[in-house]
Amino acid sequence: MAAQVSPVSDYTRPPVFYVSATPLTPSSVNPGGSATSTVTVYVGTIPVTTAALSCSVQPSPPLGATCSINPTSAAPATLTVSTFGPSGRLLSRPGSGLLYALGLPLIGLVATGVGLGSNQNGQKRKPKTVALACVLLLASTFQTACGGSHSSGTPAGTYTITVTATAFVPVNTTFTTTMLTVQ
Q1: DSSP of the chain, one letter per residue?
Q2: Which residue has the higher pLDDT, 90 or 107?
């Protein structure tokens, strides 16, 4: 008896037009890190050199991962997924509040000694007064800049990056996804 041949082929034809992205390298990053991938567009098995490329990231929380593709109009292209690193704030040490509280009267004492009053002839010292006022204003600006909030950067989790390719003759759109884990 002759062997039966299955009518279903083991070979699955790729779509007529599709986009492919290599796995992100590295596949896992800390906040502030980035990963890259190579994006290629195909018609059948032939790479296409002209296609409009775009990307998006889900989920998209505040300070979530972002993506970019370069170039956006030709393939192969480089997909870059970036994350935000932690930002710091000034942490006060125990007892430092007293130091700051003593700072204001100290500035006043220094100001009276450097010429806010009159000189010995009774003339006002306006240039020194203006200069001192500018210095004090600048110093107070830096003091307020030291406070504020902090962020731990991009939230930990797994992000799905979708790469979309559009060809124009005829107009076809396709997409692929890749994953990034933020630790």
Answers
A1: -PPP--SS-SPPPPPSEEEEEPPPBSSEE-TT-EEEEEEEEEETTEEESB-EEEEEEES--TT--EEEEESSSBSSEEEEEE-PPPB--PPPPTTHHHHHHHHHHHHHHHHHHTTSSB-TTS-B-HHHHHHHHHHHHHHHHHHHHT----B--SPSEEEEEEEEEEEETTEEEEEEEEEEEE-
A2: 107
